[in-house]
Amino acid sequence: MAEHRPIRSFVLRQGRVSNAQRRAHEMLMPEYGIPFTGTSSENLFDLDHIFDRHAPRFLEIGFGMGETTAAIAKMHPQNDYLAVEVHTPGVGSLLKQIEELGLTNVRVIQHDVVEVLQYALPPECLDGVHIFFPDPWPKARHHKRRLMQADFISLLCRHLKRGGYIHAATDWEDYACQILDVLSREPQLSNTAIDYAPRPEYRPLTKFEQRGLRLGHGVWDLIFRKK
What percent of the chain clears pLDDT 70, i.e. is strictly above it? Predict the structure, then answer.
């Protein structure tokens, strides 16, 4: 019988990698990247060793081209950021920004975030999780590929400290409704707002988001804390 393959929350669309992104990936990944070394509990990350300090830690999931992650890390040097993305152009772009901005508080993991959570991150090591504009998979038959599902949220909660938060943002209203439902059903979490939260200052507006707001498009932020 063929082995059952779990549905991925992403499709590996590599796209075009610019020369600058390729150079950054080749030159800087050894310095700022964390290799995923396998599906064994013996391979848990030692985050204090990786960052060479003990500090509040935040997981950035699916950071795209990295502008928001770099901006947040620059504004909050007292925090450490683990940035997870599978697409090489985005990884190269963030690495380039890390170097240009002189950021010492960002490390990049190029791997499926589900396996990172299952096999690499220690329990209760995170003060917060940022999931900004995840792929909405707009076609109904693809909704099962959406990242924000009950099992994934339960997995995230294993790695949150008490009082730690999950912050998701989306510009797709039906996905916002699904995320609100999923987060509300997780017994370990409580909403920090009535339904949707105002955008906190630490989440900068992206150019794409600003353009959408000018056109009257909505953006929904959801922030839930671990009890």
Answer: 92
- Pick the catalytic residue from 135, 174, 181, 195: 135
pTM passes above 0.85? yes
Q: Judge contact between 191 and 166, C-beta under 8 A.
A: no
- List the structure tokens of 13: 């669309």
- Ligand-binding annotation for 85, yes or no, is yes
The answer to whether 174 is annotated as binding is no
Q: What is the mean pLDDT of residues 81-108?
A: 97
Domain boundaries, the chain: 43-226
173 annotated ligand-binding residue: no
Annotated active-site residue 135? The verdict is yes
Q: Is 43-226 in CATH node 2.120.10.10?
A: no
Residue 13 pLDDT class (50, 70, 90 cuts) = low
Sheet holding 80-84, edge to edge: 106-109, 80-84, 57-61, 126-132, 160-170, 220-226, 189-191
- Distance (Å, rounded) from C-alpha 1 to C-alpha 61? 34
Dihedral angle computed from the Cα positions of residues 219, 110, 79 and 156, in that order, rounded to the nearest 10 degrees:
70
- pLDDT, tens digit (0-9, with 9 covering 90-100), for 201-225: 999 998 778 887 888 889 999 999 9
